[in-house]
């Protein structure tokens, strides 16, 4: 009675969870792998971020293409100023006095109707008064002016020769675009591998859950048979307890598999950005034939792998840095122009307009330009070595993942015979147990072995898909994964 009461309580507690699980299962959304890949293209934050990075790099490159255009600006100033002029009159007064002394006799002598003695007296008086008159004048004059001026000036500067700086900046901008695109491709490949991992990982956990439940149900049947045989005296209590322990262990495995499956469901739904649980419709699969010659993958990978492309773009960027460093040792030539938009209020020293050509050459700099060139060359050499290293690493990665594909493919195919043998072994051991010719441990071992064989086969298929996705990503052929899925000749149905 106590056990029956506990069972009723457990059933009452489990019923809401079972109902919720059933309702949850009804809300699942079926997704093929093709549909999941298309959904990921639209929902992936990583892909959107990498796409934005590419757009930013392309816009910067477009901006760098106009570096040789003139820069036109309007500079407007309102200023209050005061100017003082000191003008010396000494030379001017001396010249005026000399001229007056020369002209005075002629002017006096030409006066008509004036007696000569009177003219002479006037001339003598003027000659006496002129030095005193000029001596009384100041030797200098100070002029002071204060005013408010509005100075709108339009200026234009256009580079003619920059020593190679502009081409270097353009090359650097182009290298940044290549780097952004390489990162975008790398992010896409990683997302593709991750989708394979999560999508088929959910299928694997579901298959593991199915195997665990089948194993538990088989132990339930085995336990009922053992209990019946114990009541009839054909089986000892120790052997029945042995079956009971195995059945409880199978139940714990079911509980574990349920939690792992639920985690996988949540992971796939989160990755595809859907609210309802996703029900994968594509199966675990294996192609019984090899994926193709490994040299084809190596050739494609060393040419188009995003890691190699990223290293190549880094090399181009370093080479542009060398050209930019060299440009600092060369002169620059530019054209310029200015136009005063408010001539009436211009300062006396300001021109109405001006155009010209200028040149600039730095004779001495606080920065050692020669060492900067040496540093840029060293970075360029390092970038070349990194590119070579990237090619070698991609080659090794392709060979390693290719071998993993082959290993998992062969393991999957070899497990067919093991699965058949485990199935037949369980049938024989169960029959022998019911006839009293085999101990309970033999059936337990046989059923456990069958479950393990089924799980190993599913795991081998999953490892094949992961290795295949990694191989295709390393050779920049991730888009071909669907074609391998479509022509698969060995599948494990969802």
Automatic annotation (TrEMBL):
GO terms for cellular component: cell outer membrane; efflux pump complex. It holds the Pfam family OEP. It is found in: Cell outer membrane. It comes from the Bacteria. GO terms for molecular function: efflux transmembrane transporter activity; porin activity. Residues 240-267 form a coiled coil. Transmembrane segments: none annotated. InterPro entries: OMP_efflux (IPR003423), TolC-like (IPR051906). Keywords: Cell outer membrane, Coiled coil, Membrane, Signal, Transmembrane, Transmembrane beta strand, Transport. Residues 1-25 form the signal peptide. Belongs to the outer membrane factor (OMF) (TC 1.B.17) family. This is Outer membrane protein TolC. It comes from Brevundimonas bullata.
